[in-house]
Amino acid sequence: MDTPATDHQGQNNRRGSAAGILEPDPGMPASTWRLRSDAWEYLRFAMKRIALGNEDKEALAADSELRRSLRALETVEMYWAGFGQRYVAAIREMLEQGDYHMALERIGKVVNRLRGDTVPDTTRDDFADDSENSDLLVDTDPRPRFEVLIVDESTPADRDGLRTEGLRLRSSADDFIYEYVIVPSADDAVAAVLTNPNILACVVRPGFSERSRQPLSRDLKSSIEMARNLVSPESASARTPLASIQRVLRLADTLAALRPEMDLYLMAGAHIEGLSGALTHRFRRVFRREDKLELHLTLLRRVSHLYDTPFFSAVQEHARRPVGVFHALPIARGGSVVGSKWIKDLLDFYGLNLLLAETSATSGGLDSLLAPVHTLKKAQELAARAYGAKHTFFVTNGTSTANKIVHQALLSPNDVVLVDRNCHKSHHHAVVLTGARPAYLEAYPRNEFAFYGAVPLSRIKQLLLDYRAQGRLDEVQLVTLTNCTFDGIVYDPERVMAECLAIKPDLVFLWDEAWFAFATFHPVTRRRTAMWAATHLKERMGTRAHQIAYREQQKRLFDEQGNPAPDEVWLQERLIPAPDVKIRVYATQSTHKTLTALRQGSMIHVHDDEWVREAEEPFHEAYMTHTSTSPNYQILTSLDIGRRQVELEGYELVQRQLDLATSLSQAIARHPLLRRTFRVLTAHDLVPQENREVGRPMPLRDGLASMWEAWTTDEFVVDPSRITIEISRTGVDGDTFKHDLLMDRYGIQVNKTSRNTVLFMTNIGTSRSAIAYLVEVLVKLAQRFEDESSQLDPEIAAKVDDTPMPPLPDFSSFADGYATDGQLPDGDMRAAFFKGQRRTSVEHVGHEELRERVASGEKPVSAGFVTPYPPGFPVLVPGQVISPDVLDFMAVLDTREIHGYDPRKGYRVLRGS
């Protein structure tokens, strides 16, 4: 028998899911893609029991969840095309009349469509002659479809006429089809774009009202208000003095802030010639009401631009062409494989298309990655549009290389770079390559879980002020930070950059967003990405309000003689940069880690106001230095088509990813056995209290509005798609839990563990079934741990090793001879690194002997990098003094992988140190 889709949390969760649009369960996320599908699934489940005779009419009358589901759908279906509110009303009428079989048939058609199953062709004839029930028509056209939002106060007859006209305009030659979602108010428009990811375009008619008459949930009301607050009143008033146009522009700006991938059009009645000039800032085009065909063609044309994958199409065309290969690459066209007697299994496994697409050619439309002028150039321009960058560059050998490219483009020998000490090892190696001097920034530690968080802004500001006090601020060129960290700690890049630029106006920023590529495609997470922050900061600095605030703050920061106020004042103030400051921001992303791309597919995004004058030529030289002349075309095509995916369905995929992670955490928190064995770490565990303002431990549990508030105000937030589970009560360490139990026994892959934690991550490919399987496995493991614990002798159980980890070691210092001066922390890591490459300059010292040397007062110096996994960053770098804290930490590590350290030989130490 069919059962409704749930998240293994029992009847309470099903009630919350069905009623969520009106009465959200406080423990569940308020995503209407999920509330809608769950409500329809439950209707089918309940109706099937009744229609097939398993339940009676009295049971139907007593089923409060069924009634709540109907009420919820009567609201939410306004925001989706295809069925509509009258479809739900008709089902309610069938139930009241006892026509259960017909109601089950109608509900089944919706569920089949939501599941992506085939809907019988006969459904289009059900109401073909009934104009009063045009909402009930079910379209079975198999072409890719999208939805178009129309904002206008209209009658049911007007809405029916629009839908009929839309069907009439369809042509068999069209590559795509669309349906209308018609709402009467600005509130409903915002609700629609927040809840319906299928909307790719919006047509605004000036006749809309402001407020919704729908019974909206508290969370959705709060989200609407927060969305309205995204738009500064002066942004609309600066463009037009007309109040009627200002309200249109405010709505357009709000919708664009929420879903920048969505195109906006204005349909007006009169004087559109004058309006179009005033509205080109936001609307792609302005139409008269009678220009329905022109609007139709424009909608299809625009989506075709989003759908376009120029390089992927070029590779497909190359694979279809007969080609004679008198070039490198014997595998091209399958030449060395198809006729082979011994490696045909390669062809069987990967298929012929992979071999047909392999080539060394850069002509015939394929283009060169090192000097693109055609299809690859266009693909990168489309990626820049998608990610909100001014320029985007594809990288085929991972973000490690992307980081080295950016460092080499921006830094020269002896420049100072402020760098997060627990950043990825590629940044440390990049410093060696460039000859820059790193000044390490310490992130706040979470010693009880053996990982670092992020670097508080106060520490960055203080270090900049220290350089200013020593007269060396001009040497600081770059700030490099990881956003978000491996464990999911996310910065507020706009605030960091604004306050740092207020101290040093020509700083450049590199944000390592290896794990954060997905964030661009959700209205909340987008606000914490480097490219959005750069764009928004630049817009904000151009406002009159910013200019006034800057002038007022300068009076507090400097006296009449131009002397700066004490550091305490600069640290307490939320610093405001000069209005004319140049924004120079770079972001590197491991696209393959969180979006659709083959392994090592990465991107570099650029928003640099000094690109042409300062950065373009050095960047291209660095790009040439590190980029292969034989890039993998399959990686490049995956980046191209992955961009198409996120522009057309990224919002839906990311919202689902976040919600499934919340479901996992909620399942663990509510299950009696799981919560005795595991503990989900929240923002209260992962972020110090002084770095957060919103009090909720997991804001998304309380709905999108709560998450929105936290991500707007807090210095650090936690990526909801990362669930860190504390496993101390299991009696096993994280490495054993990961390898011996999860992976070897149940085939569950996780990326990171610490001594007492395991990190689970959802991504855009995670399914509800996968979450269900993980919960099932955790229950089995929890039962096993309880059974084993109950059989232990109490005295033995009390002796289980619960020794706390020693504190995570801070960066000690660069040794004399490598430190630049005694006042500031930067040093010459490059010189130490190359000295460490000479065998005569290095000795190997065992752990215990090194302890004795340190205890006797020696200051041994590391000859290389030592990077344990976890925590995944160097605890020693070349030229660093080896401190007791580092040795204490290394002594208790039980990880299987430590780069740069051989326990048989010991540490590599520079001689004479």
Overview of this protein structure:
- Keywords: Aminotransferase, Transferase.
- The protein is of the alpha/beta class.
- Helix content is 46%, strand content 12%.
- It has 36 helices and 24 strands.
- Strand 9 (445-446) and strand 10 form a beta hairpin.
- The longest helix has 38 residues, at 633-670.
- It is globular, with a radius of gyration of 30 Å.
Brief description of this entry?
Pfam families: OKR_DC_1. With 913 residues, the chain is α/β, with parallel strands linked by helices.
Key descriptive features of the protein:
7-stranded mixed β-sheet, Orn/Lys/Arg_deCO2ase_major_dom, 913 residues, LL-DAP_aminotransferase, PyrdxlP-dep_Trfase, transferase
Total of DSSP H or I helical runs spanning 4+ residues: 36
Strand content: 5-15%
The helix/strand class is: alpha/beta
Q: How big is the Rg?
A: 30 Å
Largest sheet: 7 strands, mixed
What is the count of β-strands? Answer: 24
Helical fraction: 40-55%
The rounded distance between the terminal residues' Cα atoms is 74 Å
Strand order of the largest sheet: 6-15-14-13-11-7-8
* pLDDT < 50 stretches: 1-30, 118-137, 796-800
Structural shape: globular
Overall mean confidence score, pLDDT? 87
Tell me the quaternary state. Answer: single chain
